[in-house]
Amino acid sequence: MAILITGGCGYIGSHTCLELIKAGQDIVVLDNFYNSKPEPLHRVEELCNTKIKFYEADIRDEAALCRIFEENEIDTVIHFAGLKAVGESVEKPLLYFENNVGGTVTLCRVMNKYGVKRIVFSSSATVYGHNPVPYTEDMPVGDVTNPYGRTKYMVEEILRDLCTSDPEWSVVLLRYFNPIGSHESGRIGEDPNGIPNNLMPYVLQVAVGRRERLSVYGDDYPTPDGTGIRDYIHVVDLALGHVKAVAYARSHTGAEAINLGTGRGTSVLELVHAFEKVYGKPLPYVIAPRRAGDLPECYAATDKARDLLGWEATRNIDDMCRDAWKWQSENPMGYGE
Ligand code: NAD
Ligand code: UD1
User: Fold this and answer.
1) 299 among known catalytic residues
2) Which of 51, 88, 115, 318 has a CA between 20 and 30 Å from the CA of residue 292?
3) Distance from the alpha carbon of residue 10 to the mean position of ligand 1, in angstroms
């Protein structure tokens, strides 16, 4: 039985493909290359010395999905495919709803048609909105401030309704905190298009000379050093969480939301200083105004992941900085053209 990975050429998807293959799982990958390239999958093939079955396809294309389910014995889907840029989602909300929500509905319709009723979905800590930290899975969610976050909340609700309608469905809603870092080989990593929105990719591009300096968005938050606190999680730990989530989905039905975080908060300046240790020199930065929509702090309660999945993050912020820097210093232009 194979696992279908949608969006498997992306940042988290490519790392998860590698860990699934290492764990002995059969995988089939689909991606439309909206935000990725074929190269990461080739590098995953190299790293595990295995050929990966790949389809260039769009999750909104029902006929293409049917072909994939007809040609493969799929029993579980890990659904990464989606758009994730908050700013773009404010400018192009319909694109986000069509792709992230509409695409998921099409995928589920095809899954139902082929009797495949197991899905692990990439949700986000963003669904917690303004709850107090640490975020626990039983908190009310959906208080989100942008269309991207709303698509994550809406898909969570759609998948829960699907479980209510049909008790054979198994849904694992993985709420990621802030994935950073890369595989320790330095062969695969995060390669954003254009100017990075997120902290670590920006730090890395400053470090390789592609950007002049980092802007630290606000030093007047009610946190110990005044800068924003996030729960950064090593992308390999996150990928390993998916291996466990698939095992869980295969042995349970119903819907569960589960946080994938470390439970530890790190401020922007703490991350910059941890990075400087591997970089070996100061990283140029300036203090800038707060970014609209940012919260002072965000970190996970991790008990549920430990209890249900038997999973805990084991890599710390120094490991994340070391591996991120290995990737960026050895691939200064990412995957290139
Ligand atoms: P990514 O952009 O690197 O990967 C997503 C992949 O999906 C890309 O390869 C893209 O080409 C593909 N894709 C998008 N729309 C598609 C479509 N209609 N059909 C087929 N393929 C499509 O992003 P990522 O960081 O790897 O994130 C993976 C998932 O996790 C996304 O759903 C994202 O919203 C979610 N997530 C990411 C983060 C984060 O910080 N990276 C945090 C929380 C949740
Ligand atoms: C952002 C998104 C969130 C999304 C997540 C993953 C916003 C408001 N939130 O989360 O919805 O799920 O990315 O894609 O965009 N920072 C700087 N300078 C920078 C970049 C960031 O100081 O150049 C700070 C931020 O203010 C924040 C921290 O670094 O305190 C982390 O930011 P980022 O990496 O963008 O992640 P989130 O804001 O947590």
Assistant:
1) no
2) 318
3) 6
